[in-house]
Design goal:
- The structure is a single chain.
- This protein is an alpha+beta fold.
- It contains 15 helices and seven strands.
- It has a five-stranded antiparallel beta sheet with strand order 1-3-5-4-2, sandwiched between helices.
- It is flat.
Length: 468
């Protein structure tokens, strides 16, 4: 699945180009491509096009972002799709293409000149061009490569990117949690007042007005689910409750739903330390064993459900590396820091090696990129003098070095591949250290939440015992 967006930019061209060509994001620029312009001269050529067509003002460039579902696509395929998209949709436009791998999801960037080099006309972006062209072409390319797409009719325009990303990962969103709580309260309520009482019991504040608003205590904004679903307006809720009561009276449904009673957690005998803490906490969040939330769940714990995927990742990390105690965590961090230092040292050595040969590597790129300009110059086309001079200078430099171009190309490929591999390993080690820090910080809050929940559970048990 690819989510696309297009941004119009009036700022400097070089800033946008430099951002997407960042070597740390593109595996040392391996995941980059150009259309209608040469590497290293992209900005100059785009500005020359603007000057030649007298279109220097207004929007300077457009920036298209194509984001994919995590784990669904490889960086190479993402770059291929972006190049195909640019060739089909941006015919005549000078464009720089890059695929970034520095985030949890792979995404491609396309920065293209706002002026068409062939026609001299400026690009105009609107809703029609987005949905009928950009989105349509992107979806078709995704389908051709076996990737999922957003089907027409699905809710996408009204969903923020963060919400879509959480939903695509199967993680809960505040909207989905609110709707689930609303349905459960409608099912259990005897009348509208009882419904409001149940929602407050779940930790929500309620705003009465033209629309019903709900928010967890501690949140900044109210949500108004009735805007998208009439069932969650006041009249819709009242009608749903009456419908439930009529079904109960006619015997079509039970008066009480069969839900397990909340019982305090009993420590798992196989886990100790951090592992036991995470098992306990995930149970409280309702993510271990199918059960309902405990009575009067605090707004803080309800919001913690949103971090379930994060906690599950941390738990898997602890179990995989057999970390239970603080001492084991410290030892693991020390080993990881030592590994990271060695990797950084190897990368420094490779970068020094690359820097010594950078002039030759650039000459190789110039020979390949400027070969068409050389052919045009030799055929008598004017305006190719600078390009031909650069080409010949690169050829002379390669001849003076005494190393065959084939060997130099192989060496360059090996160096860049080794750097890309080292960068991947460095990111992995840094991610491990970040997980260690997150676990150490989260474990303190978990312990406090568990203590409060167990105290509240004992109070509920005591009250029930007294009533009996």
């Amino acid at each position: 699945m690819a989510v696309t967006k297009i941004l119009a930019r009036k700022g400097r061209l070089d800033i946008g180009i430099d951002y997407i060509l960042n070597g740390d994001k593109t595996e040392q620029k391996i995941l980059t491509a150009h259309q209608g312009c040469e590497p290293g001269r992209e900005c100059r050529q785009m500005l020359e096009t603007k000057r030649d067509t007298e279109n220097m003002g207004g929007v300077q460039y457009y920036h298209i972002v194509q984001s994919f579902k995590p784990g669904e696509i490889s960086p190479e395929l993402a770059l291929k799709i972006a190049k195909t998209f640019a060739a089909e949709y941006l015919d005549g436009y000078e464009a720089v293409i890059a695929t970034h791998v520095d985030r949890g999801h792979i995404h491609s960037h396309i920065v293209f000149n706002s002026v068409n080099a062939d026609t001299g006309e400026k690009y105009h972006s609107n809703a029609r061009s987005y949905y009928c062209q950009i989105r349509a072409i992107s979806d078709r390319l995704c389908r051709e490569h076996g990737l999922s797409v957003i089907l027409s009719g699905e809710t996408s325009k009204s969903m923020s990117y963060v919400e879509w990303l959480r939903q695509s990962k199967g993680q809960p969103t505040f909207r989905s949690m609110l709707e689930a709580d609303l349905r459960e309260s409608i099912e259990d309520a005897n009348d509208l007042g009882h419904f409001f009482l149940l929602m407050e019991h779940k930790g929500y504040e309620i705003r009465h007005g033209n629309r019903l608003g709900f928010r967890l205590r501690g949140q900044e904004r109210f949500q108004y689910p009735g805007r998208k679903n009439a069932t969650f307006t006041e009249n819709g809720i009242r009608a749903a409750i009456l419908g439930n009561l009529e079904e109960i009276e006619t015997g079509q449904r039970a008066a009480f739903s069969d839900r397990p009673m909340f019982r305090p957690y009993r420590r798992h005998p196989k886990y100790t330390g951090f592992l036991a803490l995470y098992v306990h906490y995930l149970y409280l969040l309702g993510k271990i064993e199918q059960r309902q939330y405990p009575p009067r769940m605090t707004p803080h714990l309800r919001q913690e459900v949103m971090k379930f995927e994060q906690y599950r990742t941390q738990f898997a990390f602890l179990r995989e590396n057999n970390i239970s105690t603080t001492d084991e965590m410290t030892a693991y961090q020390s080993r990881t820091e030592e590994t990271l230092a060695n990797l950084m040292k190897q990368r420094t050595i490779l970068n020094v090696r690359k820097k010594k040969q950078q002039a030759l590597y650039d000459a190789l790129a110039d020979v390949e990129a400027l070969a068409p300009a050389k052919a045009l110059y030799e055929n008598g086309l004017s305006g190719m003098e600078d390009e031909f001079a650069r080409y010949m200078e690169a050829v002379r430099l390669l001849e003076r070095c005494g190393v065959p171009s084939e060997h130099l190309t192989q060496e360059k490929t090996e160096v860049y591949n080794q750097l890309a591999d080292l960068n991947r390993q460095i990111r992995a080690e840094r991610k491990k250290l970040a997980l260690c820090r997150e676990i150490q910080t989260a474990s303190q809050q978990m312990g406090e939440d568990i203590r409060k929940t167990e105290t509240r559970g004992k109070e509920v048990e005591h009250d029930e015992h007294r009533r009996r």
